[in-house]
Protein backbone atom coordinates (compact mmCIF):
# COMPACT_ATOMS: atom_id res chain seq x y z
CA UNK A 1 0.00 0.00 0.00
CA UNK A 2 1.16 3.51 -0.71
CA UNK A 3 1.65 6.22 1.87
CA UNK A 4 0.31 9.37 0.24
CA UNK A 5 -2.25 11.46 2.12
CA UNK A 6 -5.70 11.83 0.45
CA UNK A 7 -5.11 8.97 -2.02
CA UNK A 8 -7.45 5.97 -2.23
CA UNK A 9 -5.77 2.54 -2.02
CA UNK A 10 -7.56 -0.69 -2.97
CA UNK A 11 -7.66 -3.70 -0.63
CA UNK A 12 -8.72 -7.13 -1.86
CA UNK A 13 -10.63 -8.62 1.10
CA UNK A 14 -10.75 -12.01 -0.63
CA UNK A 15 -6.96 -12.23 -0.51
CA UNK A 16 -6.68 -10.87 3.04
CA UNK A 17 -9.65 -12.45 4.83
CA UNK A 18 -11.21 -14.93 2.35
CA UNK A 19 -14.28 -12.72 1.80
CA UNK A 20 -16.17 -14.30 -1.14
CA UNK A 21 -16.26 -12.23 -4.32
CA UNK A 22 -20.06 -12.71 -4.32
CA UNK A 23 -20.40 -10.84 -0.98
CA UNK A 24 -22.58 -7.73 -1.18
CA UNK A 25 -21.43 -6.04 2.06
CA UNK A 26 -18.83 -6.48 4.77
CA UNK A 27 -18.82 -5.68 8.50
CA UNK A 28 -15.47 -4.13 9.42
CA UNK A 29 -14.05 -3.28 12.84
CA UNK A 30 -11.57 -0.43 12.49
CA UNK A 31 -9.29 0.95 15.21
CA UNK A 32 -7.05 3.98 14.76
CA UNK A 33 -4.74 6.01 17.00
CA UNK A 34 -2.38 8.79 16.08
CA UNK A 35 -0.16 11.34 17.81
CA UNK A 36 -2.46 14.12 16.62
CA UNK A 37 -6.19 14.74 16.75
CA UNK A 38 -8.37 14.84 13.61
CA UNK A 39 -6.54 12.28 11.50
CA UNK A 40 -9.03 10.24 9.51
CA UNK A 41 -9.52 6.95 7.71
CA UNK A 42 -12.23 6.58 5.06
CA UNK A 43 -13.42 3.23 3.66
CA UNK A 44 -15.67 2.71 0.62
CA UNK A 45 -16.59 0.17 -2.02
CA UNK A 46 -13.71 0.01 -4.52
CA UNK A 47 -16.25 0.27 -7.37
CA UNK A 48 -17.70 3.48 -5.90
CA UNK A 49 -16.37 6.89 -6.88
CA UNK A 50 -18.87 8.91 -4.80
CA UNK A 51 -16.71 10.55 -2.14
CA UNK A 52 -19.64 10.91 0.29
CA UNK A 53 -20.71 7.25 0.24
CA UNK A 54 -18.10 5.96 2.69
CA UNK A 55 -17.42 4.86 6.23
CA UNK A 56 -15.38 7.26 8.33
CA UNK A 57 -13.40 7.17 11.57
CA UNK A 58 -11.19 9.88 13.05
CA UNK A 59 -8.87 10.36 15.99
CA UNK A 60 -10.64 12.64 18.45
CA UNK A 61 -7.77 12.81 20.97
CA UNK A 62 -4.04 12.30 20.36
CA UNK A 63 -2.71 8.84 21.27
CA UNK A 64 -6.11 7.40 22.21
CA UNK A 65 -7.41 4.44 20.20
CA UNK A 66 -10.76 5.02 18.49
CA UNK A 67 -12.73 1.86 17.55
CA UNK A 68 -15.66 1.71 15.14
CA UNK A 69 -17.72 -0.91 13.33
CA UNK A 70 -18.82 -0.03 9.81
CA UNK A 71 -20.86 -1.79 7.16
CA UNK A 72 -19.49 -1.19 3.67
CA UNK A 73 -21.10 -2.36 0.43
CA UNK A 74 -18.54 -4.17 -1.71
CA UNK A 75 -18.03 -5.28 -5.29
CA UNK A 76 -15.73 -8.24 -5.98
CA UNK A 77 -14.70 -8.24 -2.26
CA UNK A 78 -12.68 -5.02 -2.66
CA UNK A 79 -12.64 -1.81 -0.62
CA UNK A 80 -10.75 1.45 -0.98
CA UNK A 81 -9.05 3.02 2.04
CA UNK A 82 -7.89 6.64 2.32
CA UNK A 83 -5.98 8.48 5.05
CA UNK A 84 -6.59 12.18 5.65
CA UNK A 85 -4.35 14.60 7.59
CA UNK A 86 -1.67 11.91 8.13
CA UNK A 87 0.22 9.26 6.19
CA UNK A 88 -0.62 5.63 6.95
CA UNK A 89 2.90 5.23 8.37
CA UNK A 90 2.23 8.00 10.93
CA UNK A 91 -0.63 6.15 12.67
CA UNK A 92 0.47 4.48 15.89
CA UNK A 93 -2.46 2.04 15.54
CA UNK A 94 -4.33 1.14 12.38
CA UNK A 95 -6.28 -2.12 12.50
CA UNK A 96 -8.94 -3.34 10.09
CA UNK A 97 -10.73 -6.58 11.05
CA UNK A 98 -13.33 -8.35 8.91
CA UNK A 99 -16.08 -9.43 11.34
CA UNK A 100 -18.40 -10.88 8.69
CA UNK A 101 -20.10 -10.38 5.33
CA UNK A 102 -23.43 -10.71 3.56
CA UNK A 103 -23.97 -12.70 0.37
Low-confidence stretches: none
Shape: globular
Q: Please trace the helix and strand order, writing H or E for each element.
A: EHEEEEEE
Strand-pairing-aware structural class: mainly beta
Largest sheet, order of strands side by side?
1-6-3-4
Q: What is the tally of helical segments?
A: 1
Biggest sheet details: 4 strands, antiparallel
Description:
The strands form 2 sheets. The protein has a 4-stranded antiparallel β-sheet. A 3-stranded antiparallel β-sheet has the order 5-2-7, with no helix packed on it. 5% of the residues lie in helices and 50% in strands. It has 103 residues and is mostly beta strands.
Brief descriptors of the model:
103 residues, 1 helix, 5% helix, 50% strand
Give a quick summary of the entry.
This protein is mainly beta. The chain has one helix and seven strands; from the N terminus they run E-H-E-E-E-E-E-E.
Indicate the topology.
Blueprint: E1 8-12, H1 13-17, E2 25-34, E3 40-45, E4 55-58, E5 66-73, E6 78-84, E7 91-102
Antiparallel strand pairs: 1-6, 2-5, 2-7, 3-4, 3-6
Amino acid sequence: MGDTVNTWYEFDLNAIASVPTAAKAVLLHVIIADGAADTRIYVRDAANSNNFNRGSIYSQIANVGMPMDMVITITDAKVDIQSVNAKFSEFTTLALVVKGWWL
